[in-house]
Write a structure and sequence with these properties.
Length: 142
């Protein structure tokens, strides 16, 4: 089963919402060029559109892409079977999942007091770099 990228978002700093871009360059062992999390141990965050929409409905929110500080939203691909160490292919880019969810700290960014990534985020490092764009296919690498 494959899905597709529906949004890519970046911000130069951390702890803020991200702005949508049509495409992004991902560098091996670095992350997304122009994003504040590049160079960290978990530079790329991914959320499933289906989970984000359910979360938003549950909390009566109307977020735009990047409002939860996620880098990439995908649709049509269930990431639940992916474990730490699993690989994803987005376009020609290969990512390795290094963390699922994250600890919430009081100083972490929130969208109207709500945080999606601690419970629905997949954090990855870049194994094979390249350029991704909206609409690119995404798959779990077996």
């Amino acid at each position: 089963m494959s899905g597709k990228i529906v949004s890519i978002c970046i911000s130069p700093g951390v702890g803020t919402a991200k702005k949508r871009v049509a495409s992004a360059e991902l560098k091996t062992d670095f992350g997304i060029v122009g994003d504040g999390h590049a160079g960290s141990v978990r530079p790329v965050s991914i959320a499933m559109r289906e989970s984000a929409e359910a979360f938003a409905r549950q909390h009566a929110l109307q977020p735009q892409p990047g409002d939860f500080a996620e880098n990439i939203i995908i649709e049509g691909l269930d990431l639940a079977p992916v474990k730490i160490g699993g690989h994803l292919r987005l376009g020609s880019v290969v990512l390795e999942v290094v963390q699922i969810g994250k600890e919430t700290k009081p100083d972490h960014y929130s969208f109207h007091g709500f945080r999606l990534l601690p419970t629905h985020g997949y954090f990855c490092r870049v194994v094979t770099g390249g350029v991704i764009k909206d609409g690119d296919p995404c798959d779990i690498v077996k």
